[in-house]
Amino acid sequence: MIRGGKSYVSSPPAFSNDAKRLLVCTGNTVSVFSTSTGLQMGSLEGHVALVTSVIVVPAPSPAGRILCYCWTASLDGTIRYWDFSTPELMKTVDVRLPIFSMVIPSLLSQKNESSEKASDVFAYISVENIRAQETQPKALRGQVRKSNLTKSSLAGGVTLKETKKPEYITISSSGEFFGILDKQKLHIWKVPEIESERVVLKRIDLHHTKKFTVFAFHPTQRIVAAGDVTGRILIWRGFGKRTFSMGDGQANGRSTNFDEDKPGVRGNDDADNCSTWHWHPHEVNCLVFSSDGAYIYSGGREGVLVVWQIDTGKKKFLPRIGSPLLYFVDSTDPSLASISCADNQIHLLKMPAMEMLKSISGIKLPFSPPEAVSSLCSGCIFDQKAGVVALHTENYGIQFYSLFDDHAISEVQVCERNHQPGNEITVVVTQLALSVDGSFMSTVEVRLPEEDIGGLVCLKFWTSDSQDKHSRLLTVIYEPHRDSDISAVAFRPTQLMAVTSSFGGDFKTWVCGNEIQKGEVQNTGWTCYAVGSYKKRPMTAATFSTDGSVLAVAAETVITLWDPDRNILVAIIGDAFAVILNY
Hints:
The protein is mainly beta. Helices cover 3% and strands 48% of the residues. The protein has a domain at 371-582: Methylamine Dehydrogenase, Chain H (7 Propeller), CATH 2.130.10. A four-stranded antiparallel sheet has the order 1-2-3-4, with no helix packed on it. Strands 5-6-7-8 form a four-stranded antiparallel sheet, with no helix packed on it. The longest helix is centred in the C-terminal third of the chain and has 8 residues, at 575-582. The protein is elongated and about 90 Å long. It is found in: Nucleus, Nucleolus.
């Protein structure tokens, strides 16, 4: 059995310290890609469930030896420590609870580098309490727990927060703060300077009237930004000054001072002020500050990366990315960053120009056609010789994916379409066929009518190199079967011939003409060779025999067999059964 295709965007990726490698959570493994070529260099294998977090151990200084160590967490309940240059598993910590997210503050804190006495390393993890009763309507299955990575155990009795479901943990770049979202609340904890098993962490809560979707910490200042389901971005300045700095607030962040003027801040939230920005028409999916703190990057369903200037609120854009944005990740190299998109692609960006350098493409997600044409749509096509699967994509395209090498080869844009979230689907690629050697492809696209007016069926023939699958359009045929929908497309195994069948009661065979130019055979296009029908019955399927000598076309309850060269009906299969059934 040949297997291939994993999600590259289930969790944020992580750059190596030299920014030459990108570590990507791919199912039960972590795949290591080269940022210069976009090709996979290796993988970390050992987890037995989805890997949810990968954290690269920072180098002690820019001039120091490049470290190639990382921590990973998984739904299998383990935290693992790796040397990803080898690769080699160094350590395993079993917490026996599915881990949905993990942060390790001490890796980011510069204070621990100068510590004279080595201390334990703690991770804060978002886990699912599998012991909670699902039958309880208000069961809290999500927990934020503390794990001692040095002693390979959970910190006993320390549960920072319980939520209805496990939430993603976000940490500041300094390791001083981390937090989670819980509906309309933002919970922020301050990491103590000296950590121990049972130290109590102080927390503040920031409130909003809408559900939060994502948030981020400023790298150097007491500023936190959060996006919501309406597309707004809220920015709190001076958060936690009373509770975290002075230590006179309560543990839940409620201060006793009610007299200060705090513009935009709700209730008694511990912040100096709160401002709101709004450009996204849909929910904000990714939000992050630049490494110098001068800008905020945001993105969502629109497929547009927005860069906000913190001081002025001015914006610039990277449009037409083609898919909703999920994550934006900076590297130690200020000229390199990555964007993860919902279409299972990771784009490497040259900063600050925001030019796309490379794309790491996983297999595309399944496309769900509108119900009106779902019965017309064929599934994916497998090229057995090359080990390549061709499948429909949401953006009116065909992706070629190698199952042997487990990576995307190319993508053909059948018809142009700019990504516009929320727009109704107007065109559907319903049929797809490949020739035996993979050098030709045929597609059928249906333009849906508006109020029963303006529908269109289009048949296209493409040619491509058998290796890289970069296709070139040869022939476009509008309404090949008058106003009828095409039920099937198939290529003849032995010759440049194809067949299309239609619900309108006929089938057509097509041939490709050749001409010699400069000593090479050039494909000039596809033309109709013959037309056939059987008692005007709808033709529901068509295919050639393995040796190409027989063309079989289904006509409702019977199968008609034809000589494809002479277009002569030679046999009928199924009449006797049809009579018995009718009787």
